[in-house]
Design a protein that fits this description.
Elements (H helix, E strand, L loop, with lengths): L7 H8 L7 E2 L1 H12 L5 H8 L14 E7 L2 E12 L4 E5 L10 E2 L6 E5 L2 E8 L2 E13 L3 E6 L2 E4 L15 E4 L2 E6 L4 E3 L4 H4 L7 H10 L7 H13 L1
C-alpha cells in the first residue's frame, strides 16, 4: 500500500525530461478501454456532473488540467488532460485539453497507479486490502517520518424544481468537506479530528511542543496552508 509513496518524487523527477512531449501509451489506452467496459458507475454521478447551474463542482477543479499518469516506476502517459471527481471518487482522463469530454475515460483504481495533476499528486489506497473499498488521496506532504494525505470529499445537496410560480428552482450544491490524515512510513493512517481542541492530541508526547510552535507563529490548523506548515514542523521534531 505504501511501497511507492516514498518514491513518488524520485519517479516524477526521473521522468520529468519527457514532460515536453505527449506520451500516450498503447497499454495505457488498452487499460482504460477495459476498465470503461466494466464500469459500474452510478448514473447519479453523471447527472450531477451535467448540471450546468450547480453551485460548486464535484471535481477537484471544474476544468480538466494537464498532468501525467504513472504505473509503478514507469511513466504511463504524459501531458494528458485529468480531473478528479470527488463525488464518484474517480479520476477522469482524456488525450488532451482539446479532446471532447465525451471521449474521457477512467483511470483504473490500482495502488500501483498514481497521477500528477499540475503539481498535485493523487494515489489510490485500498482499504484493508480491498480495491472496492479504497479511495483516492491527495499527497500534500512527504516527510522523513510521516506524510500528510488529504481526502477530498464533497457533500452533495440535491437541488429541487420550483413547486409553483412563487418559488424558485434550487440548484444542486457541492460543498467541500475534506479530511486529513497523518500516514506513517509503515502505512498506518491516523485521521486528524475535526474539532480544533482535539487536533493536537494526535501529536502525543510532542503536543505541547507543537502547540507552542503554533502559538509563536500565529497558525490556525483550520487553514490548510497553516496545517501543512504545522505537519512539516512536527515531522522535524
Amino acid at each position: 500500500m505504501k511501497k511507492f509513496t516514498f518514491c513518488l518524487l524520485s519517479y516524477i523527477l526521473l521522468f520529468s525530461f519527457r514532460a515536453e512531449a505527449q506520451f500516450w501509451d498503447r497499454e495505457f489506452v488498452g487499460g482504460l478501454n477495459q476498465i470503461e467496459q466494466n464500469n459500474n458507475r452510478q448514473q447519479r454521478f453523471d447527472k450531477y456532473t451535467l448540471e450546468e447551474n450547480s453551485i460548486g463542482t464535484p471535481y477537484n477543479h471544474p476544468d480538466y488540467l494537464v498532468g501525467n499518469v504513472y504505473k509503478g516506476n514507469a511513466l504511463w502517459a504524459t501531458n494528458v488532460a485529468l480531473r478528479y471527481n470527488a463525488v464518484a471518487d474517480e479520476i477522469e482522463v482524456k488525450e488532451s485539453l482539446e479532446s471532447a469530454d465525451e471521449d474521457a475515460r477512467l483511470i483504473p483504481k490500482d495502488p500501483d497507479i498514481f497521477v500528477k495533476i499540475v503539481n498535485d499528486i493523487y494515489v489510490f489506497i485500498p482499504f484493508q486490502g480491498k480495491i472496492e473499498d479504497g479511495g483516492y488521496f491527495h499527497v500534500m506532504f512527504e516527510g522523513k517520518k510521516l506524510d500528510l494525505y488529504k481526502k477530498l470529499k464533497k457533500r452533495v445537496i440535491p437541488g429541487r424544481t420550483a413547486s409553483s410560480s412563487f418559488t424558485q428552482d434550487v440548484p444542486t450544491e457541492f460543498r467541500d468537506e475534506s479530511q486529513y490524515f497523518l500516514v506513517t512510513k509503515s502505512g498506518r493512517f491516523f485521521q486528524l479530528p475535526d474539532e480544533r481542541s482535539k487536533k493536537f492530541d494526535i501529536f502525543g508526547a510532542n503536543k505541547e511542543v507543537v502547540l507552542e510552535y503554533v502559538k509563536n507563529n500565529d497558525l490556525n490548523p483550520e487553514k490548510e496552508d497553516d496545517l501543512l506548515q504545522i505537519i512539516q514542523f512536527y515531522d522535524g521534531v
